[in-house]
Structure formats: structure tokens, C-alpha cells
Fold Transcription antitermination protein NusB.
Amino acid sequence: MAARRKARKRALDLLYEADQKAVSGGAPASGDAVALLAERIATPHGEAPMREYTVEIVEGVAAHQARIDELLETYAQGWSLERMPAVDRAILRIGVWELLFNDDVPDAVAVDEAVALAAELSTDDSPTFVNGLLGQLLRLAPVLRDEEAAAGG
């Protein structure tokens, strides 16, 4: 468990950094995340080796980011992606990817881990927001998964 939690945290760091670079530079965040991941793997700068699950998360979020962001925009009542704290955006992207696109993670674990990251790293209101939004998507997950399967995603 601790290994996956560390992998999520590192993926969050990469997704957050890529998102911030995209905001300041105008480049698409998903491509930046994969490029940043490749850069960190190639030149680790004294960091521990990249965990396999970190790579899987970053690549998975990047591959499905358009759909993930569409779902977040649709179900985050009153919140646009741009209005969300950047850390929450990255946490939610990981959570949605784990819920809908990664069969290896139990749904409850995906939500719990996202809420734990929000509690540790974001605002006081973030855990409730993340829990509520992912909880709503969790209730819709069977239908959303069927839609993804039908669309070939």
C-alpha cells in the first residue's frame, strides 16, 4: 500500500508541475506530463527511480485527460477546471483515472487515496470537494465504464 501511495504522490507532483507549466506557457498539459515524466526518468537528479505505478498513472491520465476533464467539468457543480485549485485538479484526474480506467484499483481505494492526498496537500475544503465529486462519479461508474468500453476507450 505504501508503495502505491508514494507512486500516486509522485504522479501528482508530475501532473501538478506539468499543469502549472501549461498554464504559464499555454501548452497542453497532457503532453507536458508525459514529456516531463520522460525527462525525469532520463535524468533523475538524485531522485529515487521512478516507480512503475507512477509511470502508469501519468501515462494513463495523459491518454484519457480529455475525457477525464470533460467528466470533471460536467459533474463539478459550479466549478470549472480553471477555478479548481491546481492540486485538486491533479488529484481528481488521478482519482477519475483510477476509478474508470484502472481495473487494478478498487473503487473505494481510489476515492480514499484521492481524499487523503487532498487532506495532506490542499486546502481545508479540498477533501470534502474531492470526496463529493469522486463519490458522484463512483455512483455513475458502471454507466461511464460501459460508455468508455462502447467508445473503445
